[in-house]
Specification:
Elements: H1 14-34, H2 41-48, H3 70-77, H4 82-98, H5 100-104, E1 108-112, E2 116-122, H6 123-126, H7 136-149, E3 159-164, H8 183-200, E4 209-215, H9 226-232, E5 234-240
Length: 246
């Protein structure tokens, strides 16, 4: 006798429905995370505080009390709004336009990082070796810098000038060695002199200005070769991001 045919199971397995629901919810959650600029801060707090525990084995929250993800919610809420990002992009574009000849000749580098807009001056182009005094070309570039920073959009930004050197100490036969025996003094003095020009000649408020000397301790390239040391000898003017957010 022929064996009876087994009945074929039709339809979606029950576990797949649960998995599909979970995937959809996770997708919705991460889309929400990426569109927080369109959500009011108070509403975002309420949404995120509803999650308790982790995104582990489906332990969701049923309350608006503070949960483990509340800190994450605060970080997301504090991200700069789109308008603020647009302003930063326009400021960088304007800086590149103003310093275009120096950028092309690689004497000035303009970047953006977590601190804000960074205008980096290659020290060899604007200083004599071991000297804290700007050359004529250096004074011209700081004059440009002062006019740029005087713009109204930077009136509330902290302007931080950071001096950096390579790991070569000031030569003992240098006329500057007695005044600047280590790279600490040299880098700090270079920063302070730029700060004074911005304050005294361009009227930038002293409460918005900071000077820091890092010496040789924050290199961007290796000090093992001359090219790397040349990149490390620099002064960075940082237009700090504003601390308040909308």
């Amino acid at each position: 006798m022929p064996r009876p045919k087994k009945k074929e199971r039709r339809g979606t397995p029950s576990w797949l429905l649960t998995y599909g629901d979970m995937t959809t919810l996770l997708l919705t959650f991460f889309i929400l995370m990426f569109t927080t600029a369109e959500i009011e801060g108070r509403e975002l707090q309420l949404i995120l505080s509803a999650f308790r525990g982790s995104l582990g084995m489906f332990r969701g929250g049923m309350t608006l009390s503070e949960g483990v993800l509340a800190e994450l919610g605060q970080q997301v809420e504090s991200l700069p709004a789109k308008e603020r990002g647009d302003q930063l992009a326009k400021a960088i574009e304007k800086a590149v336009s103003i310093f275009q000849p120096e950028v092309k000749s690689r004497r000035v580098k303009i970047t953006e990082d977590e601190r804000g807009i960074v205008i980096s001056l290659v020290a060899d182009a604007f200083y004599e070796s071991g000297s804290p005094e700007l050359t004529e070309e250096g004074l011209r570039i700081v004059e440009k810098l002062g006019r740029f920073l005087k713009e109204p959009e930077f009136s509330e930004n902290i302007i931080r000038v950071e001096g950096h050197t390579d790991n070569t100490p000031v030569s003992v036969i240098s006329p500057f060695h007695q005044l600047y025996p280590t790279n600490w003094e040299l880098s700090a003095t270079r920063a302070v002199k730029i700060i004074r020009i911005l304050n005294e000649e361009h009227g930038i408020s002293g409460k918005n200005l900071q000077a820091i000397g890092y010496g040789e301790y924050q290199p961007v390239e290796t000090n093992d070769i001359e090219e790397g040391r040349a990149y490390n000898r620099r002064v960075e003017i940082v237009i700090m991001r504003k601390k308040e957010y909308s």
